[in-house]
Design goal:
Elements lengths: L1 E9 L9 E5 L3 E6 L7 H12 L10 H22 L10 E7 L2 E7 L3 E6 L2 E4 L6 H7 L5 H6 L18 E5 L6 E5 L1 H4 L4 H10 L3 H14 L6 E9 L6
Antiparallel strand pairs: 1-10, 2-3, 3-4, 4-5, 5-8, 6-7, 6-9, 9-10
Helix pairs in contact: 1-2, 6-7
Bound molecules: magnesium ion.
Magnesium ion binds next to α5.
């Protein structure tokens, strides 16, 4: 199996700089969102994505172990960079990544970027938001719908770097025909799951789907950077 991925990005209407970083290959897809309000968010997100990129060339092995190890190494890299340059002190980022090796697919995630899977027309959020409002949802204090409108919905409870870093790390069961979506909160804060499902269902071509999602975010006001990766899982051989 391999991933057939397309990306779309926009600065959004409320930002003049880009703090999102991303990578879309045949085995690895990743989104990292430099935390707003922190210095050098774009440096942190770029460091993480650069640290993960070599995984795309890797073949075989345990995808979850490899991806987790790479995220932990990225955590160290961001922490070291933040500690060695006063301009970078306090920088932080989210990371959400999928790695395919052979027939194995792994998810590693920290923060409020998201991974979704569209299978048989149904959208499922694979990543769990590390946010204050998600914690309230988990406790049953508010509904998912209330979280969407909550004034503190942008409060993120886990970021890279952290000591210790506690990522969500999961083995998924991939199936040919699955469509995966990775996005920064610039999409998911603005575009509903229903609208995401519709856009992904109505466009066979991953690029067209990704472009449509960014368009919907812009129509919704796009206060933040918007990054979208749409990755289809094909049964084709990678050839090596
Ligand atoms: Mg963002």
């Amino acid at each position: 199996m391999r991933l057939h991925a397309a990306t779309a990005h926009d600065l959004g209407l409320g930002r003049t700089n880009n703090e999102d970083s991303w990578y879309a290959g045949q085995r690895l897809v990743a989104v990292a969102d430099g935390v707003g309000g922190q210095p050098a968010g774009e440096v942190a997100s770029d460091l993480v994505v650069e640290a993960l990129k070599p995984l795309d060339a890797d073949t075989g092995g345990d995808s979850l172990a490899a991806l987790t190890e790479a995220v932990l190494a990225a955590n160290e890299a961001v922490r070291d960079a933040a500690g060695s340059d006063p301009d970078h002190d306090g920088m932080a980022t989210t990371v959400t990544a999928l790695l395919l090796t052979g027939e194995e697919l792994a998810l590693v995630h920290v923060g409020d970027s998201r991974a979704y899977r569209l299978r048989d027309g149904e959208l499922e959020q694979l990543s769990t938001d590390h946010t204050y409002v998600q914690m309230l949802v988990d406790r049953g204090a508010i509904t998912r719908e209330e979280a969407w409108h909550h004034p503190q919905r942008s409060v993120v409870t886990r970021v890279v770097p952290a000591d210790p870093l506690r990522p969500q790390a999961e083995r998924l069961t991939p199936r040919a025909g699955d469509r995966y979506l990775l996005c920064s909160d610039g999409l998911s804060d603005v575009v509903s799951d229903e609208a995401i499902t519709e856009a992904l269902t109505n466009h066979d071509d991953p690029q067209a789907g990704a472009d449509q999602l960014v368009k919907l975010a812009l129509q919704g006001g796009a206060p933040d950077n918007v990054t979208v990766i749409v990755a289809d899982l094909d049964a084709e051989s990678v050839g090596g």
